[in-house]
Amino acid sequence: MATKMGLFRIAANQLACLLKQTSLRGTTASSTRCMHFNYVPETPSQDHGETARMNFFQSITSAMDIAMASDPSAVLFGEDVAFGGVFRCSVGLKDKYGAERVFNSPLSEQGIVAFGIGIALTGSTAIAEIQFADYIFPAFDQLRSEAAMYRYRSGDLYDCGKLTVRAPCSAVGHGALYHSQSVESFFAHCSGLKVVMPRGPIQAKGLLLACIRDNNPCIFLEPKVLYRSAIEEVPVGDYELPLSQADVIVEGTDVTLIGWGTQVHVLRETAALAQQKLNVSCEVIDLVSILPWDVETVTKSVEKTGRVMISHEAPITMGFGAEVAATIQRECFLSLEAPVERVCGHDTPFPHVFEAFYMPDKWRCLEGIKKVVSY
Amino acid sequence: MLSSLRIGRSLANSWITGVIQGAHLSTASEASHTVMPYKLHLLENGPNTEVTYTREEALKFYKQMRMIRVMETTAGNLYKSKIIRGFCHLYSGQEAVAVGMEAAITPQDSVITAYRAHGWTYVRGISVHGVLAELTGRKTGCANGKGGSMHMYSPNFFGGNGIVGAQVPLGAGIAFAHKYQEQDNVCIALYGDGAANQGQLYEAFNMAKLWDLPCIFVCENNGFGMGTSAERAAASTTYYKRGDYVPGLWVDGMDVLAVKEATRFAKDFVLKNGPILIEAATYRYHGHSMSDPGTSYRTREEIQEVRQTRDPIGKFKEVIINAGLVTNEEIKKLEDEVKKEVGEAAELAKTDPELPLNELYTHIYVDPPKDMKVRGCDDSIWSDTR
Questions:
Q1: Ranges for the Dehydrogenase E1 component domain (chain B) (predicted)?
Q2: Looking at the partner chain, which of A27, A108, A364 has a beta carbon nearest the beta carbon of B378?
Q3: Closest CA of chain B from A132, distance in Å
Q4: Last residue of one domain, picked from the residues A235, A262, A289
């Protein structure tokens, strides 16, 4: 596989290039670009033992490696995954586990997911990759009508709980309309599915293993901008992290900031800015699981702070922030000191030339905080 | 060795036997060319294997193919300089398909294709400047810079579609519209060998045949669906037969004259009989997209061999010079013109104005409800739309 390493190295370099235009007005070749957030590595839990330096895609590989090793029924398939995948997440796994267990599929998203549902119906473990979350929609019918409902409609006689669908998602700096979307809220409407979006390597590995082993069909959305930019000391062994449990990643007292995926990092920076510029103490929550989600951690925080801002890259209207906001107003009505604020993607298609303007960056988030504290 | 190379060798022979005219008749106005035999599925007769063409056609096809090649090379360079953003899929190697097909249809006929759309956009009437400026996201781009590489359009050219296979059923719908409006026009719906494995194609074939729609389905078989070769992705790689009950036709997609003749035949056929499926055997020199170097799943030698033995432009040049239709000097002059035009277009594409920011909010709906505003990142941003 080492000889194949070059395949999409440039691809991933460019895709996950982490760079973003700061000057869209620039008309020269040397238009300056920079990341729209800084990645802050986290510290692994002592409980999980020995660690190694891994980036996000390597932690995904590590999770799948362990899943394949510990479960002989597990198979991994998708477009170009036998080569290691366009984002390099499955590098080496075909050599290690054989072409019967790690294989390329045709370009057939509906087929990939349906095939995976079939495998999972027999009790085998299916790990399916959709190359970009933007391409998952041909498979939407299978996920919504088959995967999500199988258990319910059969009175628990059958299920495809051993299915996990992985898909790279969210903005990458220049992905334009069909390589940038955050699709979580489409699936949040489908009871029976689990939807998860990790924020970094340590978390991704533990959550992916949890998804693969969870007996419900899971959609695991990997923010592609993190594949190379997020590097941490990741436990090399087998560990799982709990699904449907949010993380308080920064503690604070004045405003609760809620996000998931890449946006958590934007919020972490916004919290620092708010402290520095406004002397406002923010509590940052990574929701982690979109479905089912951790209401308790959120409401507990909002009851403490009384003010809340939710932020995601997906368009604001009917983004998952709407559900979180509705729940907060009902559960925390008497604790709220200000209306719930949302800072999200625009209600437009993801733009080709206006990405920098579309994004809910830290400055827009800071404005949101100003509003909730000055209400 | 991949079957594409086997095709390559036999094709090379065909080109040699195909040269009919002597080398010195530079004043000839017409020549004849023998194409590689077509393969037929559910067809009693196929297109002509002897193709007659004029000097004007020779010059036009050569210039168009050359223009696409140089435009794509330029686009690749602009991408590497980070002037083109987004995704970028180059057509180099496949020029004969677009140029040959366009030569056999009229501007009133329709075309819809996938994301490898630059060449088709050009032959459907958009200038090189319009293509390159779209790639660089400028106002002067053919979609005002809002589409980028995968999304280019012109009259009766419906794009430019990002989702693999999604354009094919649309093509059936467009063909239905032509038939319903009693127009003598057809729709060409193109897809790749990778997309041939998408389920919605077969829904489209069924509807097209059921209702005898004037649709020419075209599989541009360039040998690879992204990084996976056709043989590894398809249970049947005889794509021209995969329409089952839809008659099919295999054509050498590296021979512009063969493509033109096949398309002429197909247009005539579909207007009388309903859909046909053409498989055009071609090759892509670049990777799937700019992020794929394109050399990990095939050898450099394979690409080199195709360039030497099957290249649609190089071989056509030999044919038309040997046929005495065009001189070396004329070719040189054409190439200089092409280089100049693309060079000037590239400069404009770098310096043309970008769209004003309010365009972020336009073209979401036509005639939006009165006073409708588009919400931005939060409830403080409500922008006008139109």
A1: 64-356
A2: A364
A3: 11
A4: A235
The pLDDT of residue B27 is: 66
Confidence of residue B12 (pLDDT cuts 50, 70, 90): very low
Nearest to B81 among A8, A29, A364 (CB): A29
CA distance A291 to chain B (A): 23
Cβ–Cβ of B357/A342 closer than 8 Å? no
In terms of domains, do A176 and A231 share one? yes
Tokens read off for B120: 């088709």
Decide if A29 and B350 are in contact by the 8 Å CB cutoff.
yes
Closest by alpha carbon to A313, among A339, A287, A283, A347? A347
CATH at residue A71: 3.40.50.970
Taking CB atoms and an 8 Å cut-off, how many pairs form between chains A and B? 175
A331: annotated active-site residue: no
pTM of the model: 0.84
Strands A341-345 and B224-225: unpaired
| Mode of pairing for the β-strands spanning B187-192 and B110-112 | parallel
- CA separation (Å) from A152 to A125, A211, A286, A292, B267? 20, 19, 30, 16, 51
B378 close to A (CB below 8 A): yes
Place of tokens 């038309």: B320
A290 shares a domain with A161: no
The single residue of A36, A48, A79, A109 carrying the catalytic annotation is: A109
Domain that holds residue A66: 46-235
Asked casually if ipTM beats, i.e. exceeds, 0.95, the reply is no
CATH of the domain at A307: 3.40.50.920
